[in-house]
Amino acid sequence: TQIKCPNCGTSIDVQDILAHQLEDISYNNTKITYSDTGQGNTLVLLHGFTESQSIWDGFVATLSGSYRIVTIDLPGHGQSGCWGDIHTMEDMAGCVKAVLDHLQISTCVMVGHSMGGYVSLAFYRLYPDHVKGLGLFHSTAAADSQEAIEGRNKAITAIRHNHKDFLLQFIPSLFAPANQSKHQPLIDNLMHEARKMSSQAIIAAQEGMKLRADSRDMLKNASFPILFICGKKDSRIPVDSILPQIALPKTSYSLILEEAGHMGWAEAHETTLHMVKLFTEVCYLA
Predict the structure, then answer these.
(1) CA atoms of 265 and 73, how far apart (whole Å)
(2) Which end of the chain is less congested by CB atoms within 10 angstroms, N or C?
(3) Quick one: CA dihedral 140, 142, 147, 149, positive or negative?
């Protein structure tokens, strides 16, 4: 029996869903929820700001036939708890490491969407020997510009005033304008799930992203392949800002999506799924 994934619209076998069970550990005296599906070499998929690990359900259903797939609700997101006013990218990377240690996983390919890419870079900085490949999925190795910091400060003010109104404006804008009506059920679902987050958790993530370090030098020194997935209609991470970064690593792969905004995992699901699969294969052959 198959049903449609609410996050990407692809068909998922019910048996795959039953195998995709959520578990949790305690980290920093806080519940952290994760899933561990499939067998073989490990691929870790990290979600973005105001999302949860459920965005990867369609990826897990397909890729768990070839790999061991670990997904995690980052602190304050999904079913994971919030422990403070600031969740730095290093805090979140420590949470990911705790899950991998619990699962006795010593090496992995890690792909992060948006904020998840920032967490992946922080993980690489802290635990370089544990990374076989790293994917920046609508993400960047650059730190926030002064303009971006000012934008986050305005967002934090709006979140404090009414975080539900903030989400109502924020989430639809992540999609390319031409894709918004087509993905309206998904947008509604993303907003429904994001509204379950506390304003403290949303602000803690914004504060952490604002403080993140510039990681472009790390791209130059990476001994493993780096993947970049960009959308030409991305209003958050302009593709022109990523092109110079693609040239930095010794080995890099890129996928530039003509009609996608910031949500290529949904806007170009099959294409991005195929690219992540190929990239993971390359990393484990290297």
Answers:
(1) 17
(2) N
(3) positive
Residue 279 contacts residue 253 (beta carbons within 8 Å): yes
Q: What is the pLDDT of residues 65-93, one digit of tens each?
A: 999 999 999 999 999 999 999 999 999 99
Query: Quick one: DSSP state of residue 145?
Result: P
Q: How far apart are CA 246 and CA 19, in angstroms?
A: 36
Contact criterion met (CB below 8 Å) for 159 and 206: yes
Q: Which residues contact 154 (CB under 8 A, 6 or more apart)?
A: none
pTM: 0.93
* pLDDT tens, residue by residue, 10-42: 554 544 444 468 999 999 999 999 999 999 999
First to last CA, the chain: 37
For residue 12, the model assigns a pLDDT of 47
H or E element, residue 154: helix 146-170
Separation CA 276–CA 272 (nearest Å):
6
Q: How far is the C-alpha of 99 from the C-alpha of 277, rounded, in Å?
A: 22
Phi-psi region of 131 (alpha: psi -120 to 50; beta: other; left: phi over 0): beta
Residues 264, 206, 69, 252: is their CA dihedral positive or negative?
positive
